[in-house]
Inverse folding.
């Protein structure tokens, strides 16, 4: 068991793919962190709806209130979309690298069902451009979201009998329910602004590793495929056999 685990780790670290280990490392960690970021973006929406429901249920008779978290929910949507793009790319890059290293799906099976899987080295230019674009979009979305979280606050529209009331009229209810208007004082909203920058670190690392791998693949001398080598060797063997046969026939004819 331990020998098998060591063999797997050895193949992951020592492979002939350009920057294969670094690309796989950053892609896997980016995939994990981006899943957490997406979960916090969804939590902003679900928590807002839950807080709104509890607020309405605990208001004094005749008083209505609406919790306004619209700006932070908008930036959460943008961050969620950019994060999903990064998650998709990271997961796909990791999968094709693992496939190239371990050949989980046998080549014979792929040929039988006519499935063409992308090669992790041949598609490096596309990976590099896609990672650069997606990382840039993610950084922009994370910057907007972070700015809103640490510099803005939510609001509450309070009305009674058609007349607007100040937020202080229901402040005791807000405190009792634990509803905080300043975004940075809400733990899950603050974390939703901090976690994306860890994902940015791994996204930048994955992008740099991909570009370095692309550079190395362009400078590396072309290696003929094994199939072509075996075919060339078989042709040479056939030619040698034919030459030997022709020489033997010539000797017999002379005799």
């Amino acid at each position: 068991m331990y020998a098998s685990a060591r063999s797997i780790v050895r193949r992951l670290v020592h492979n002939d793919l350009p920057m294969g280990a670094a690309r796989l490392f950053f892609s896997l960690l980016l995939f994990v962190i981006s899943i957490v970021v997406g979960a916090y973006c969804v939590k902003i929406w679900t928590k807002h709806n839950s807080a709104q429901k509890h607020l309405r249920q605990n208001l004094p008779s005749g008083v209505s209130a609406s919790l306004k978290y619209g700006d932070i929910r908008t930036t959460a949507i943008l961050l969620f979309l950019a994060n999903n793009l990064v998650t998709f790319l990271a997961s796909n890059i990791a999968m094709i690298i693992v496939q190239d290293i371990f050949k989980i799906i046998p080549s014979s099976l792929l040929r039988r069902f006519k499935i063409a899987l992308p090669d992790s080295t041949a598609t490096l230019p596309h990976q590099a451009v896609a990672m650069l674009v997606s990382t840039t979009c993610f950084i922009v979305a994370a910057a907007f979201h972070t700015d809103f979280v640490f510099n803005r606050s939510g609001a509450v529209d309070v009305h009674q009998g058609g007349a607007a009331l100040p937020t202080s009229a229901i402040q005791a209810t807000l405190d009792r329910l634990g509803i905080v208007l300043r975004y940075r004082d809400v733990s899950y909203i603050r974390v939703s602004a901090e976690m994306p920058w860890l994902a940015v670190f791994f996204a930048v690392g994955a992008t740099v590793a991909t570009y370095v791998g692309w550079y190395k693949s362009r400078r590396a001398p072309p290696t003929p495929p094994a199939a072509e080598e075996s075919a060339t060797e078989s042709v040479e063997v056939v030619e040698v056999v034919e030459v030997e046969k022709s020489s033997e026939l010539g000797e017999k004819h002379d005799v």
User: Anything to note?
Assistant: The longest strand covers residues 63-68. The longest helix spans residues 20-57. The mean pLDDT is 85. Residues 226-255 form one domain.
